[in-house]
Design goal:
The structure is a homodimer.
Chain A: H1 5-11, E1 14-15, H2 21-26, H3 38-41, H4 43-56, E2 60-62, H5 70-74, H6 82-97, E3 102-107, H7 122-138, E4 143-149, H8 152-165, E5 171-175, H9 189-198, E6 203-207, H10 212-223, E7 230-234, E8 240-242, E9 245-247, H11 252-264, E10 267-272, H12 278-288, E11 305-308, E12 313-316, E13 323-326, H13 335-343, H14 347-359, E14 363-366, H15 375-389, E15 394-397, H16 401-410, E16 416-420, H17 424-437, E17 440-444, H18 455-471, E18 479-482, H19 494-509, E19 512-516, H20 527-541, E20 545-548, H21 553-565, H22 573-579, H23 600-603
Parallel strand pairs in A: 1-10, 2-3, 3-4, 4-5, 5-6, 6-7, 7-10, 13-14, 13-20, 14-15, 15-16, 16-17, 17-18, 18-19, 19-20
Antiparallel strand pairs in A: 8-9, 11-12
Helix pairs in contact in A: 4-6, 4-12, 6-7, 7-8, 9-10, 11-12, 14-15, 15-16, 16-17, 18-19, 19-20, 20-21
The structure holds zinc ion (3 copies).
Chain lengths: ~600, ~600
Amino acid sequence: MMKPFLEAIQEKVLILDGAMGTMLQERGLRPGQSPEELNLTMPEVVASVHRDYVEAGADIIITNTFGGSRFKLAHYGLEGRLAEINARAVQIARKEAGGRAYVGGSIGPTGQFVEPLGEIPFDEMKAAFREQAAALIDAGADLLSLETFLDIKECRAALIAIREVSGTIPVIAMLTFDDNGRSVLGTPPESAAITLTAAGADIIGSNCGLGVDGIYDILCRMRTVTHLPLISQANAGLPRLIDGATVFPGTPQEMAAYHERMIGMGVRVIGGCCGTTPAHISVMKAALGTVQQPWQPRSESTGVTFLSSRSGWTAAGGGNKTAIIGERINPTGKKIYSQELQDGKVAYIRREAMEQVAAGATLLDVNVGTPGIDEPAAMERAVFCAAAAAGVPLVLDSSSPAALERGLKAADGKVLINSVSGEAKSLRRVLPLAKKYGAAVIGLALDQKGIPDTAEGRLAIARRIRNAARRHGIPDADIIIDCLTLTVSAEQKRAAETLRAIRLVKQKLGLSTVLGVSNISFGLPQRPLISSAFFAMAMEAGLDAAIINPRDGAMMAAWRSAMVLLNRDHQAAVYIEAYRGEQAAATVQAVAASDAPLSIRERL
Amino acid sequence: MMKPFLEAIQEKVLILDGAMGTMLQERGLRPGQSPEELNLTMPEVVASVHRDYVEAGADIIITNTFGGSRFKLAHYGLEGRLAEINARAVQIARKEAGGRAYVGGSIGPTGQFVEPLGEIPFDEMKAAFREQAAALIDAGADLLSLETFLDIKECRAALIAIREVSGTIPVIAMLTFDDNGRSVLGTPPESAAITLTAAGADIIGSNCGLGVDGIYDILCRMRTVTHLPLISQANAGLPRLIDGATVFPGTPQEMAAYHERMIGMGVRVIGGCCGTTPAHISVMKAALGTVQQPWQPRSESTGVTFLSSRSGWTAAGGGNKTAIIGERINPTGKKIYSQELQDGKVAYIRREAMEQVAAGATLLDVNVGTPGIDEPAAMERAVFCAAAAAGVPLVLDSSSPAALERGLKAADGKVLINSVSGEAKSLRRVLPLAKKYGAAVIGLALDQKGIPDTAEGRLAIARRIRNAARRHGIPDADIIIDCLTLTVSAEQKRAAETLRAIRLVKQKLGLSTVLGVSNISFGLPQRPLISSAFFAMAMEAGLDAAIINPRDGAMMAAWRSAMVLLNRDHQAAVYIEAYRGEQAAATVQAVAASDAPLSIRERL
Ligand SMILES: [Zn+2]
Ligand SMILES: [Zn+2]
Ligand SMILES: [Zn+2]
């Protein structure tokens, strides 16, 4: 009996096999033929490739099922034999593995795109991956490997599908990146890593497209946003024939040094992609023997909430700049937007998405709650539109679980759900959605009894939300507590209580915090004065994200100033960029500030 | 042996005798004659008045020396016999007291005014009181009683004089107030109480001018700002002849109720002023027997720093509004003011004093430090001018002990010294001045080694300053720690450290805190943005006083907003008053804030 795969990679770094496709071409695969069909027609050829890799020392061999999805097999009229093809592939590999190697079920891209980029609805794409994953798992694969994905949305759908089939099967998920450090569809490694981690991958990384140095850079960037073990599957350097012998680039010492770098940052599976042969694997295996290191577990509880879109990402908490959640895509009190929602139009959303991001929003709240509309459909339209118009991650703001789920399907990355409360019914409805779709969630510090008067009362609800989230398998870092801004003119004593709640929640629970800030000043004249002062105080108290109007100059001035003061805008670079040259800005009534400051020493 | 006077009043409320002057007139004092001369010429008459009061039950009898100062005696050519007159008065009273009553040496106003109101220099006025106090103390008075003062500055000078003669003689200090609740020279009871408490009185209160209800109101107002035991010496209601018997207004029950009210607020000496006779005293004594209460000690450590001027007062700390110290009267970088200081002119000071107070300053910093001038003389001129132009208490800002002392003499009330540091030399020079002249003092959290990097380092210096102050007899409430604002563009990590220092100093030492705020933004564009955000954060951290330019609209907006948010501007009254009707104010770039706030419930 081999030990479970995820335990094995904690003890030692495993070697993954090399290329399958080029090996099959050498051994009889004809142009235009389905490589996966060989599982049925030429099983011995497939087996021989596996055998060579196992003999070369591979710890993991990958099934010949890269194109084993319904969409791919349909090109060859083989979709009716999907289960058979995938099951046979596992059986062939299992026999060659012979108790010496793990069998990884390969799943590649479908060649189709999910809506709105393509025409495949999310649910249909997910069903395709479910079908292939179920076949591989049922046949006894030790793990699944999502390889060479170009579209993060498709890879995310595949992960969500696999997790519907099995909560426990180990899953590797890999995107392919270009020389420019993004996938061909514009996703940077951080964004990919955030999305894949949230959607339930166990190991993430990159395969194909880049050589060793390129992959190393990609993984370094992934490492900044994920606690997961990593996988490196670089294209091999080309072997050269020197004095009649096949020689691979790099000395064994260079190979060992490369492994050391990779392992040092938490890579636990190393393999090769295009161009890698059993001979490569053999050399890698030998080199790796000299540098084995136990896995240094990385805590999830970094206190940082990562969110992602297709092309961007935002980190809130843990000393990052306070995230700005643009609040303008919300029909409350906005007639134009309300009417557009009724009419199924998106011009307001597109404009506000672009303008809020231009003004400094790092996240966009999307709320479509207006009477008499199909809210789930409106949410899907809004998410498609906002994602296309702006590169920042989204915050799905709805009291309807159906609308939230539609938005979660429509999203490209890891979104933030706004919100769950401490009420049992809310927790029961919302937390499973967050877990299933890999989202973070805002927890409102209130329950059926309302908003507690004291910070301690709000802390108690926050703890209850955190505990419920843990039971659903949602990490602490994906809970952001809304400590609740009450209107100061109505509840004057409770403004300070909200600030105290921020401190308590961070101190006692280590959770990130968020506030809808401007509610504080409702009913008072010159509202931005009160709101911006409260915002500055809240940031000093540790506020990690703020739901505001980023086109409110006073609010953004408070934000930029606070980021300087709290040492999160290093060298005041962002601040100076924003205000340099503003000589007679209307932003403040700048009373002549010509006086030099008093030196402390002079005052002694 | 009677127990020491200050111990006695802790155990029971003492009865003070009644009027002396009217009694002497009845018994032979001629119009135009010096009442004090009777101590030499008709000692038996003086003795008979004392005897009647002692027999009526008075616990304290007051010597016939109300006009026994050099200035008063000079009217009668008796200034050469000052020592003799005062000494004899004590001897006469002592004999009649006979171990049953304390002898209080009376000291009244001189009939002259201290500069700049009158022509008597502070030192000359002080010398006059020294002379009389020394005579009374040398003759064996148990305590001194400053009575019927109209000018707080004169009464303050008398207290400072007495404390030069004796640090331990118990001193009662009383001002006389009008029906309008102020002294004839415009001093409210709070201001008087703050000044007298700081200048070294043991018991304060009011005598003459008002009946029982009026005095009660005065003492209530004094009680809000002092921890000292109080004295009530009201004019007696006129006795009426009913059925041949002398009857005093009010039943014994009413008299007892009156005593209960007085004692309930900490009055420990009750007597009568004009119109009070031994018969009154006898009735009061009887009524008092039914309501005796032990003294409830009041702590000095209220955490509130009280400061006063002739006509106003300011409380900083302990949940009061953050005090605004106007910073503009400072020649650093101001050519016009520098030149005026060279020329001995005060137009700039007068204008800035008025304008800063109009803009919201509750204290005024006065700094005259410019090269090549007589700084003590300039400080005196500046204090005279600023006190006349503005009703708020002053902050004397100088590194020269001589200039500070000149300013302390020139002041009408309890000022704030800016500043002492943790350096031994600074503590040695500045703290005795604060103690002697009854001033509070700003303690800079730095020493010869500079400004500590950490909040803990600044706390340690604050503690050292506090301990040194205690050794000088300065209460904790009169130390305000400057946690030191460093320029954020130069020392970015230390901005948060300053805020942490504020919290630490308040939490660990219970001291009030102050900052010169605007130094934070030196070198950055749009300085008011950074300064006002930092100011809001500092107020939330507990800042009790801020040295700022009150004509900086952004700073005052942060202040007004913070006072609302921290529940110190109840019902936002000050805020609304300031901004009501400002529709298109230039104060902020008010982006359309027309959206109604999201109800929390709606978001569920
Ligand atoms: Zn490849
Ligand atoms: Zn490949
Ligand atoms: Zn009187």
